[in-house]
Amino acid sequence: MSAVRLALIGCGGIATQNYIGALPACPEARITVVCDPDPERRERARRATGATRVTADYREAAAAEEADAVIVAAPNALHAPIVRAALAAGKHTLCEKPLAMNYPEARELAELAEQAGVRHMTAFTYRFVPAMRWLMELTRRGAFGRILHFRSCRLQDWGGRFLGWRQLRRMAGTGEIGDMLSHRVDFARQLAGEFEKLVASARQFVPLRGGAVSELEDWVGVLGAFRSGATGVMESSKTAAGHNESWRSRDYVEINGEEGSAVYFTERWNELCLGKPGGEGLSAESVPREYWLWPGSRRDPEQGNPLLTFRYDQLVEFVQAVREQRDCAATFFDGAAAQAVMDAIVISAEEERWVRLSELDRKGDNPRG
């Protein structure tokens, strides 16, 4: 097919960074429709993309004849209604995480997307870091043997800065759980398999942000057990003083297997630390160049800030999947499975108990495997 025409719904920071910024790396994509309730954001997006249709109505944007596919980059509470509108119009759809406000809603979206026969993708952006791509491939190959432990630690210093809609329960659903931990939940599923049960604690340390009430947690810790028999530990915080934020902050993932271990740091995009049983410690190894770019990406991995530009490959994957009529790397079923884990974390933290994933209405796994 010719260029994939995109309707971008939500024109804030994520849209600018991950999608508008990605256009040079993906010449097969054109943003033809932009939608946002804020007129200044709409106009900035129009100028940046050359979009021919500009609207404040997501329903109009989702159904626009000028678009083949929809990118949902709006606040969390709007994900499900926008996705439903896009699917009803028969549009391929990429949605920011979390896919929905709860697991039943996320699962419904995945099933609707399958029924519509369109490509669907959840934006688990960090899957596209070259080091994580290599780590996932090594794990799939069995390089570490049976996985025994998974752990992740995401530490940022956001102080008391204002987070806008992200500090409102009705708009965000959760705080650190849906924001940063959701990516690590996806890592855990990719590296250790599905969770069987977990116990969690969540805390709010900063009740006022920018002079406004914050209703949501800014720290979460999880102890989990996987169906495979592996253990899991995850921690994520916005209140780790001195750790900076975004790609400059601590983002650590480790797996330990019977035949080896690996450590991943987002800030070391082209490096993994690897070790073998009986060794003298982990040693850094360079990520092979074939993992530096996603297949089809036109970006130069040695140009720009690699801790930002890897994000562009996410749009490349979505557009290539649409053009090739195949499943995306991270489907709505992945988004729904991660949401089930997040729901279990919320229940555990609120009720102060272990929660089995079977307690949720899972309705089985992805019907296509």
Q: Low-confidence segments, ≥5 residues, pLDDT <50?
A: 363-369
Largest beta-sheet characterization: 9 strands, mixed
Q: Any idea of the CATH class of the largest domain?
A: Alpha Beta
- What is the CA–CA distance across the termini? 27 Å
Query: What is the third-level CATH name, the topology of the largest domain?
Result: Dihydrodipicolinate Reductase, domain 2
C-alpha geometry: globular
CATH architecture of the largest domain: 2-Layer Sandwich
Number of helices: 11
Radius of gyration: 20 Å
Average pLDDT, rounded to a whole number, is: 95
Strand order of the largest sheet: 16-15-14-13-7-12-11-8-17
Beta-strand percentage range = 15-25%
Tell me how many strands there are: 17
User: How many structural domains are formed by the residues?
Assistant: 2
The proportion of residues forming helix, as a percent range, comes to 25-40%
Order of helices and strands: EHEHEHEHEHEHEHHEEEEEEEEEHHHE
Question: Could you name the CATH homologous superfamily of the largest domain?
Answer: Dihydrodipicolinate Reductase, domain 2
Structural features, described:
- There is one protein chain.
- The chain is an alpha/beta fold.
- The protein has 2 domains: 4-125, Rossmann fold; 126-301 and 339-348, 2-Layer Sandwich (Dihydrodipicolinate Reductase, domain 2).
- Helix content is 32%, strand content 25%.
- The strands form 3 sheets. It has a 9-stranded mixed β-sheet with strand order 16-15-14-13-7-12-11-8-17.
- Helix 4 (79-88) packs parallel to helix 5.
- The model is unreliable at 363-369 (pLDDT under 50).
